[in-house]
Amino acid sequence: MSKPRNQEFEFLGVNHLALVCKDMAKTVTFYRDVLGMPLIKTIDLPAGKGQHFFFDVGNGDSIAFFWFPDAPQAAPGIAAPENLPTRGNIRSAHGSMNHIAINVPAERFDEYYAKLKAKGVDVTEIFNHDDSPTQMSKELTKDVFVRSVYFFDPDGICLELAAWTREFSERDVRHAPVRADGTPDVSVLQA
User: Short name of one Pfam family for this protein (predicted)?
Assistant: First the structure.
């Protein structure tokens, strides 16, 4: 099967995702020194309004952070999930960002998981996501489509290392999206 193609725009991926941190120094230490992302651009905003720093996340994409001296405090469980998967409530409010999944090579996934643990990062167990009723496999099988581990950054932003393990086909798009009232809208899949 050929990959679906955008007929309207030539998007080249995510240029950057802009988040807000409480302490830019801790953010730099975590993303540059723990996760190894090169710090590629720093900006002091005019009139003392804060800072804006960019980290290279690979593939020409960036994760950026604003630091505002007067930003409101974090609101876990509202603007971001309270817990990591399997550790409690992972919901967040409409319009919030739930987590960032950083793509890694499948052949290096186990190595990177061990490296995070060795650096003292509190990570979840490995998730082998599949299409079974539990959506999880203890082993890596042919039905696993992505492997994941989750952890928080110093500001409570949920991060995921994710590795695709197979290509998708038409059978992977089969669930009708649900409307706000909880009813499925099958017409959307027929479009």
Answer: Glyoxalase
Residue 133 lies in a domain: yes
d(CA 124, CA 168) in angstroms, rounded, equals 25
> Which tens digits make up the pLDDT trace of 23-58?
999 999 999 999 999 999 999 988 889 999 999 999
Provide the residue range defining the domain that includes 27.
Answer: 12-73
Q: Residue 126: which pLDDT band, with cuts at 50, 70 and 90? A: very high
Residue 105 forms part of a structural domain: yes
Domain count of the chain? 2
Looking up residue 106, the CATH number of its domain turns out to be 3.10.180.10
Model pTM score: 0.83
Q: Strand 100-103 vs strand 61-67: parallel, antiparallel, or unpaired? A: unpaired
Sign, CA torsion 19/24/26/30: positive
Residue 7 located in a structural domain? no
Residue 67 lies in a domain: yes
Cβ contacts of 80 within 8 Å, gap of 6 or more: 74, 92, 96, 97, 98, 156, 157, 158
Residue 15 tokens read as 């240029």
Q: Cβ contacts of residue 180 below 8 Å, gap of 6+?
A: none
